[in-house]
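Q: What residues go here?
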């Protein structure tokens, strides 16, 4: 009877939590800070309630869903295709650390596997990673989207991209660990330059802060990520990441104590496989590296797996899911339309021209010039907005909106778009979690790999200090963007 009552109460807590997340996700007028606050408070309260009702380990809204049931399954997986799991882990080291992986591992890697890893890194860097921008459409962070739009417009006419080529070169030399390390430091340097310019102007040159993008942002399903697709994607990446650690540990005869998920309220926050750490420490450095690198390796493989259906749907399915009407998808901060037009409005007329699709919109808007009063009719009313000069062409007038075709309301279209969002989010998150885990931050896989293979603790600690400072600087734009 008590179990039934507790299960009923847990169900009610889940429903209330989902409702709070839904309100935060849909009520854009509340602002990002208020919506995040609602989400975090709802998740903390839900987590505390569920932990107490089910007598689980945890605290501060987090609780552990652990069990020994999955240990046997992990053991069975480790016994089959053992050569694949060993090669997969070492492949991840090569992709993660590039050309440096060979001396990093003191040459203790098959040369054919090393060559295949380097080829994989090249293909992923230049033919897969660029499409992460397509998946970013599902992350609803308006401040970052505005900064990206402004930066893109400002650099639309730029020529030789020295920084881009430099980051590409570092990525080949140091793998995805070098890619994410240098990207964070480069963004941090831009932020410091912008802040210095703002301070030097006596806090009057706000343009010095324009276009800056925070390098760190919380991603919460139901707030800045679609709720259901976001939770499923997070669960998938966490499970495969930790399971891979467990598989390699069992392959080397290490016993597992427990496996499970770390929950934050209703959201999978992490996963864990608890091995016998004393036994792991007695293994040689190569075996320890394989165990640690297995999670990142599997995340990068999953990234490739989800990339294929995402691209197929992008090419053959997604174009047929939209109607011909023109919808405002984003209003850029600092431009005339900001505070007047809103995302979701359907444009019906532009300067008297009927808008029947993106083509007719482009033709109508092509005649706008700076200072011209643009007459816009939407499904919510009529508006008059004075156009401002375009950053890329001063003779072109813009009001500061981005447009697209809205999704069809049919069930089949919604279902197919859900699958597309699930593939895209899984592709993006597996990449982000995989490469960020390569950073030398205590508790991350990269930190353990560095400590296992580099004798100089001074060097490792210096890398830790540099990247932590870089990450803290990347948070600063949230204070003013």
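A:
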């Amino acid at each position: 009877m008590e179990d039934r009552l507790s299960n009923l109460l847990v169900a009610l807590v889940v429903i209330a939590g989902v409702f709070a997340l839904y309100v935060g996700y849909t009520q854009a007028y509340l602002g990002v800070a208020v919506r995040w606050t609602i989400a975090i408070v709802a998740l903390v309260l839900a987590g505390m309630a569920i932990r107490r009702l089910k007598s689980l380990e945890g605290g501060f809204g987090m609780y552990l869903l652990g069990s020994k049931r999955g240990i046997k399954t992990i053991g069975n997986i480790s016994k089959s295709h053992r050569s694949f799991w060993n090669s997969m882990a070492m492949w991840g080291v090569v992709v993660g650390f590039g050309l440096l992986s060979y001396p990093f591992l003191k040459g203790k890697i098959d040369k054919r596997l090393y060559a295949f890893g380097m080829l994989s890194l090249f293909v992923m860097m230049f033919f897969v990673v660029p499409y992460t921008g397509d998946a970013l459409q599902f992350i609803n962070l308006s401040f970052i989207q505005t900064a990206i739009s402004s930066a893109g417009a400002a650099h639309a006419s730029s020529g030789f991209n020295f920084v881009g080529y430099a980051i590409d070169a570092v990525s080949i030399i140091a793998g995805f660990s070098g890619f994410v390390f240098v990207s964070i430091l480069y963004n941090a340097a831009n932020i410091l330059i912008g802040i210095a310019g703002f301070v030097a102007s006596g806090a009057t040159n706000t343009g010095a802060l324009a276009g800056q993008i925070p390098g760190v942002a919380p991603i919460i399903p139901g707030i800045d990520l679609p709720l259901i697709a976001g939770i499923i994607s997070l669960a998938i990446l966490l499970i495969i990441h930790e399971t891979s650690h467990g598989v390699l540990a069992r392959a080397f005869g290490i016993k597992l104590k427990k496996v499970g998920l770390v929950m934050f309220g209703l959201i999978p926050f992490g996963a864990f496989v608890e091995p016998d750490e004393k036994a792991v420490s007695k293994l040689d450095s190569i075996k320890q590296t394989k165990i640690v690198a297995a999670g990142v390796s599997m995340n990068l493989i999953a990234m490739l797996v989800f990339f294929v259906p995402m691209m197929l749907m992008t090419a053959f399915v997604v174009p047929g899911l939209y109607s011909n009407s023109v919808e405002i998808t984003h209003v850029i901060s600092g431009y005339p339309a900001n505070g007047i037009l809103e995302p979701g409005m359907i444009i019906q007329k532009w300067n008297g021209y009927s808008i029947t699709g993106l083509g007719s919109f482009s033709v109508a808007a092509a005649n706008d010039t700076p200072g011209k009063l643009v007459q816009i009719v939407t499904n919510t009313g009529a508006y008059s907005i004075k156009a401002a000069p375009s950053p890329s062409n001063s003779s072109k007038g813009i009001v500061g909106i981005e447009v697209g075709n809205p999704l069809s309301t049919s069930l089949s279209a919604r279902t197919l778009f859900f699958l597309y969002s699930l593939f895209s989010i899984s592709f993006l998150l597996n990449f982000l979690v995989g490469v960020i885990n390569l950073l030398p931050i205590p508790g991350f896989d990269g930190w353990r790999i560095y400590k296992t293979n580099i004798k100089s603790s001074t060097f490792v600690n210096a890398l830790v200090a540099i990247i932590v400072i870089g990450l803290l600087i990347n948070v600063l734009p949230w204070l003013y963007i």
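A: Context that may help when evaluating the design: Confidence is low (pLDDT under 50) at residues 146-159. Residues 2-61 form one domain.
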